[in-house]
Design brief:
Length: 178
C-alpha cells in the first residue's frame, strides 16, 4: 500500500497478500486498441504531459532521472530534450503492449524487459509503476475526454494498468527486490 504526503513523497508498505488480477477480456483488449490510436498520433505531447504530471504531483519520482531531477518548472521540463526522449520511450513501450495485447506471451516479455531494466539498472521502486498508471489514466481522460470519458474505456485501461503493475511487481519479486 502506498501513501503520498503533501510534498509528493511516496511511502510504501508491502501488502501481505498479492492481488488476483482477472485477465483482460477480448472486448477490453479491443477497447484499448481502439482508443490508443489518438494518443499515439500525439505520442510526444502525450508522453511529456504524463511525465510532467508525474514529476509535479509526485516530485520524489524525479530522483531516478539525473538529467532533469532538479527541474521544478513544468515549462522547463516541457523543453527538456531528455524528458521528451524518455516520454517517447514510455509511449512507445505502451504502444508495443497495445499492439500486442492479444498476444499474452509478447506482453509478458515486454513487461519483463521493462521491469528488469527498471529494477536492476535504474533501481526504481516498483510503486512508481502503480503511480505512473494512475497518472497516465488522469492525463488521457483530461487530454482526450471524448475518447476516454466512457466508463468502459476507463475500466479497460485501469485493468491494463493493474496487469502492468502486477506483472512488474512479480518480476521484482522473482529478482528478490520486493
Amino acid at each position: 500500500m502506498e501513501g503520498v504526503q503533501a510534498n509528493g513523497e511516496v511511502h510504501v508498505q508491502q501488502q501481505q497478500q498479492e492481488e488476483e488480477v482477472a485477465p483482460l477480456s477480448d472486448q477490453e483488449k479491443d477497447t484499448i486498441q481502439d482508443t490508443w490510436a489518438i494518443v499515439f498520433q500525439n505520442s510526444e505531447a502525450a508522453g511529456v504531459a504524463v511525465l510532467i504530471r508525474l514529476f509535479t504531483k509526485y516530485p520524489s519520482s524525479k530522483q531516478y532521472f539525473k538529467d532533469f531531477k532538479h527541474m521544478e518548472d513544468p515549462e522547463e521540463m516541457a523543453q527538456s530534450t531528455q524528458l521528451k526522449k524518455h516520454a517517447v520511450r514510455v509511449i512507445n513501450a505502451i504502444n508495443t503492449l497495445v499492439e500486442n495485447i492479444h498476444n499474452a506471451s509478447k506482453v509478458a516479455s515486454v513487461l519483463t524487459l521493462v521491469a528488469k531494466a527498471h529494477a536492476v539498472r535504474h533501481k526504481v521502486d516498483p510503486v512508481y509503476f502503480k503511480i505512473l498508471g494512475g497518472v497516465i489514466l488522469e492525463v488521457l481522460v483530461e487530454a482526450f475526454p471524448d475518447t476516454f470519458q466512457p466508463t468502459q474505456v476507463q475500466g479497460a485501461w485501469s485493468k491494463l494498468m493493474v496487469v502492468l503493475y502486477t506483472h512488474v511487481t512479480g518480476v521484482y519479486a522473482e529478482l528478490g527486490l520486493v
